[in-house]
Design brief:
Number of helices: 14
Strand content: 5-15%
CATH class of the largest domain: Alpha Beta
Shape: globular
Number of strands: 5
CATH architecture of the largest domain: 3-Layer(aba) Sandwich
């Protein structure tokens, strides 16, 4: 992660500063037309896989609204923000009085990003609206992502969504909207973004100064996500995948050595990003195997793998909650995986 921007991957452009967006022209057109009509919804749920541009779209739309406060006079399309404009400079620096970005805060004691968006963060929204009431300006809150809100935070934001202030706009981002409170989803207009196609992903990576050939293994493994591509390129994600696949086919002492080597890599200092990458890849691999088994009529195997997925998810949650030894957790999970596959 970037030291200057906690939560931003190395090599990425922070969404608030990013002037380019690739692959979501239809979503931009919808937002532009909705706003210009004067009948736009007060809360938009921008959903889709992680790393495909949801936050960048939210900040671009916020810039569009703040740059054109009268919907009737707004352009029909959302253009690239002008970095030299006052609105863009304020958004990029986090100094705008009309935009509030809610995300996981940094723990002052550890210096690390917390695992959830807390209720204290959401209470900032209440203060934000109180301080800006009467200005007549649009006031925009970006929740990034709403999946990270704990129960108290979710209930607190729900109260605001139920009775939104005038000229208030909520851009609610979600990687997995099914995890959100149904009452939050029901108060938002859903806007689904799809993973990037190869051409859009290639253009997005080129915008970051990275050259990759469409159709290569990187594109297949990234699954249309810029953040996944960065983890593969800048965090050793490709090596992690290769090590995992070797463990699956290895036997005896060779398998145990490989398991310990992978566990060491995933539990070292500053390994949170690549550990998260591994957990996601592991879950996808297990569920892919379960779907294949079900498709081949091996129902017992599919059920066993689905149960394994649920068990591993629960164990990882408990491990994180109680700060258990990560290496031992990984070794235990890999051991059980070897027995089940």
């Amino acid at each position: 992660m970037s030291e200057e921007q906690p939560g931003v991957l190395d090599g990425a452009i922070p969404p608030a500063e990013n002037t380019r967006l690739f692959g979501h022209e239809d979503a931009e057109e919808f937002l532009a037309h909705s706003y210009r009509s004067g009948k736009g919804h007060h809360a938009v749920l921008i959903e889709g896989p992680e790393g495909i541009g949801k936050a960048t779209l939210a900040f671009r739309f916020a810039n569009h609204v703040m740059s054109h406060p009268d919907p009737a006079l707004a352009p029909e399309r959302i253009g690239d923000p002008d970095p030299a404009s006052a609105v863009s400079r304020q958004i990029a620096s986090g100094a705008s009085h009309n935009l509030l970005h809610l995300s996981r805060p940094v723990d002052e004691k550890t210096g690390k990003v917390k695992s959830t968006i807390t209720v204290d963060e959401v209470r900032r929204a209440g203060k934000f609206f109180a301080q800006t009431s009467g200005t007549g300006n649009w006031r925009i809150v970006i929740i990034d992502p709403a999946d990270d809100m704990n129960r108290n935070a979710a209930n607190a934001i729900l109260k605001i969504l139920e009775e939104p202030p005038k000229r208030a706009l909520f851009l609610v981002l979600s990687h997995a909207p099914g995890k959100l409170l149904p009452t939050i989803r029901s108060r938002c207009l859903p806007l689904r973004l799809s993973p990037l196609g190869d051409n859009a992903l290639g253009a997005a990576l080129a915008n970051l100064g990275l050259n990759a050939e469409p159709g290569s293994a990187l594109f297949a493994q990234a699954k249309g996500s810029v953040s996944e591509a960065l983890k593969l390129l800048n965090y050793g994600g490709g090596d992690i995948i290769q090590a995992y696949q070797q463990i699956i086919i290895a036997e005896g002492p060779a398998a145990r050595r490989s398991m310990h080597k992978l566990a060491d890599a995933l539990s070292g200092k500053e390994s949170d990003t690549i550990f998260g990458f591994f957990v996601s890849y592991l879950g996808d691999d297990i569920m892919d195997r379960a779907r294949v088994a079900a498709g081949e009529g091996r129902i017992a195997a599919a059920d066993r793998l689905s149960r394994l997925y649920s068990d591993i998810t629960e164990r990882l949650t408990i491990s994180q909650a109680y700060n258990l030894d990560r290496k031992q957790t990984i070794l235990s999970i890999l051991g059980d995986l070897k027995q089940q596959i």
